[in-house]
Amino acid sequence: MIDKPRLEAKCSTWNITLTGTQLDQLDAFAEILVDYNQKVNLTAITDPEGIEDKHFLDSLLFASQPEVAGRMVDVGAGAGFPGIVTKIYKPELELTLMEPTGKRVEFLKYACAQLGLTGVEFAKERAEEAARKAWREQFDLASARAVAALPMLAEYCLPLVKVGGNFLAMKGSSGEEELAAARGAIKKLGGEYKETRTLHLPGGDTRTLILCKKISQTPTAYPRNGGKIAKSPLK
Ligand SMILES: C[S@@+](CC[C@H](N)C(=O)[O-])C[C@H]1O[C@@H](n2cnc3c(N)ncnc32)[C@H](O)[C@@H]1O
After folding, report:
1. Residue 138 is part of which domain span?
2. pLDDT block averages, 10 residues each, the chain of length 235
3. CA gap 219, 188 in Å, rounded
4. Ligand 1 pocket by C-beta < 6 Å: which residues?
5. I want to staple 157 with a disulfide (CB 3.0 to 4.6 A). Which of 47, 57, 142, 197 is the partner?
């Protein structure tokens, strides 16, 4: 379904090397996604080159960052981006796909089973509720793509990260603006902003990766409930 040499060539400009097995798994994942998408709406991007650039390459750029290791949670995993692609690229990763929508969780389970991926946990949870349960401060890394603006996303993700771990947000061209609005929230939640990495994807999209380290425990008052987070994002 995908054009493997084309994806390989694009990856090589970023020093990302894929094995034959990984290319086969990505190809199979594209087929599973497009096929399942006919029954359940998962993505608007279904053409091979769109999947290669906007889903696979974007997720691989995230996956190749040095902080992507150990136990990771993908908050709002949706159709598996960046989580499933990251697991294909770094099979040793312990991955939790956190997603509140039942039909998407069913898809994630189905896709991982079909791809033979092991070491994946499925959490049918909203992040702010999961952080009040067994998942609080359990992860080396939390990430999310296309879930919420950074002040809200910080309150979803940082409480899930253990002290010493990282929150690596996948933002678009508004990353710097969102960061300016989120600085207070990051601090209140026990995080420390480290750096921004700006990457230019094929087709002109900008990917901004915002890295925050967890330097102290999140106060027990956070995360607040979902309504409060949405109504009055932390400042
Ligand atoms: C636009 S989709 C993005 C999915 C995927 N990350 C991607 O980039 O293709 C946003 C996803 O976030 C999930 N979501 C929204 N609020 C959430 C929350 N509070 N905790 C966890 N997931 C959430 C939604 O159910 C949805 O699947």
Report:
1. 69-231
2. 96 96 98 97 96 97 98 98 98 98 98 98 98 98 98 98 98 96 98 97 92 98 96 95
3. 8
4. 75-79, 81, 98-101, 104, 126-128, 145-147, 156, 226
5. 142
